Amino acid sequence: MDCKCFNDLGCFMTDEIIDFGVEAYCDGDFVFEIRYRGRTEIQTVTFVAGDPIVLPYTFDEIGTVKIKIKVPLTNPCVPVPGFNYITSSGGACEFVVHGANAAC
Question: Which of 8, 25, 54, 72 has its CA 20 to 30 A from that of 44?
């Protein structure tokens, strides 16, 4: 499965909580791949099955940030073979957010 679409979640102030609109479907460490201004930042957050997947906005205050969420590679979190990212209900595997100081 190839990810070619994104879900734009809008604008966020510093430390505001981003709700990705999906729940953890298993217990484990979810890896956030956060890309902005030509760099990639990795954050790992532990969730329990049923928890909403959320993350505080601590990134670029004026630009666009692209986030992918990698699922734990342990049972029962076995991903679709060859594809291990959380997807939105619409099938997007990349989430886009903007700093509140961007042109929102």
Answer: 8
* Rama region for 28: left / alpha / beta (φ>0; ψ in -120 to 50; rest): left
d(C-alpha 8, C-alpha 94), whole Å: 9
In sequence order, what are the beta bridge partners of 23?
52
The one-letter amino acid at 11: C
Q: What is the dihedral of CA 34, 36, 39, 45, to 10 degrees?
A: -20
Alpha helices (H) in the chain, listed in sequence order: none
Residues of the chain with pLDDT under 70: 1-4, 75-76, 78-83, 102-104
Asked whether the beta carbons of 61 and 16 are under 8 A apart, the reply is no
pLDDT tens by residue, 16-28: 999 999 998 888 8
Q: d(Cα 23, Cα 26) in Å, to the nearest integer? A: 9
Q: What is the DSSP letter of 78?
A: P
Query: Order of strands across the sheet with 94-99?
Result: 6-12, 94-99, 64-70, 28-36, 39-47
